[in-house]
Amino acid sequence: MSSVIELRGLRKEFDDVVAVRGAELDIEQGEFFTLLGPSGSGKTTILRMVAGLELPTDGTIRLDGRDVTDVPPYDRDVNTVFQDYALFPHMTVRENIGYGLEIRDADPDTIDRRVEELLELVSLPGTADRNIEALSGGQQQRVALARSLAIEPQVLLLDEPLGALDEKLRREMQIELKEIQEELGTTFLYVTHDQEEALSMSDRLAVLDDGRIVQVGTPEAVYKRPRSRFIAEFFRGSNIFEATVEAVTDAGVELSFLETTVLADSDDVATPSAGDSVTFFVRSEEIQVGTDGDNRLTGRVTNAVYRGGVTDYTLDVQGRDVVVTLGDDGYEAGADLEITWGADATVLLRE
């Protein structure tokens, strides 16, 4: 597939603050691509530069092969959905959705037909003549989405569009957004700080830290095999420890940890040598109770946090806290558990 968005050496400075530092990114046609990171990491600034709402200090932006670095927003084949919806309160639903077509001199019949198609798409049939202020937050979000899609942009930019919704409605809209994107085949560039949202919706995602893109990949790859400590800690359930390399063999990397040997798969992210000090991590849900695994430890339960369907147990393992995510097993504080995990779940991190 061809890249519809290409960022090369993209940098943005605000006075003495560097918001984006040399971003390099290729987004393919028809992808649901997410920029994920904490507040201030640069994700919204990148989106605004793609939209043309901010001009880069350095670097280039290409849309479908065309250099649009200095092109004004109205001359880019993109549209944007904002968190606050930015709807016109004095207009009806029909007028809001059809506004972009109207200013492009589309005829009334075409506008009406397109509005009805989009209302069906966003599950709001029969609401065309309602006032915006009479709609709920979730309905307004759907109208904002329909309005942005009315002109059939090649790329739809979404800046934390679900942030103002409650948890239940946000989850429903995550599913609907993904279904709409897949049905239309439009490229979505989505910004969020919500890890679960990014993991559940994206074809690929980029994690940002302090203005830098630190990892790009599928949700599974970024979640299971992060490249750095920052990325590992950004997601819930990370057990991160220091160890010393005992040996590197065909079977993997042998680590000295808590008076035992922990086995990790070798990979191209980190290739240490015997005697090196390294950092490794294991996701909490990769750890099981039992002895049937490459790595085994014994610990005592000190805390349990119920999370609906699963429980996060904190174990004291020779003075180290290890978090284990299990089903509703009912272990109580003071219980001694033997835990195990595979070598493929032991991930070596870059400094």
Summarize the entry for a quick read.
The protein is α+β, with helices and mostly antiparallel strands and 351 residues long.
What does this structure look like?
- This protein has helices at about 45-50, 95-100, 110-120, 135-150, 165-185, 195-200, 220-225, 230-235, and strands spanning about 5-15, 15-30, 30-35, 60-65, 65, 80, 155-160, 185-190, 205-210, 210-215, 240-250, 250-255, 260-265, 275-285, 290, 295-305, 310-315, 320-325, 335-340, 345-350.
- It is about 25% helix and about 35% strand.
- The chain is built from eight helices and 20 strands.
- Strands 6-7-8-3-9-10 form a six-stranded mixed sheet, with helices on both faces. A five-stranded antiparallel sheet has the order 13-12-11-14-20. A five-stranded antiparallel sheet has the order 15-19-16-17-18, with no helix packed on it.
- The longest helix is centred in the middle third of the chain and has 18 residues, at about 165-185.
- The protein has about 350 residues and is an alpha+beta fold.
- The mean pLDDT is about 90.
- It has two domains: about 5-230, Rossmann fold; about 235-350, OB fold (Dihydrolipoamide Acetyltransferase, E2P), CATH 2.40.50.100.
- Helix 2 crosses helix 3 (about 110-120).
- About 35% of the residues are buried.
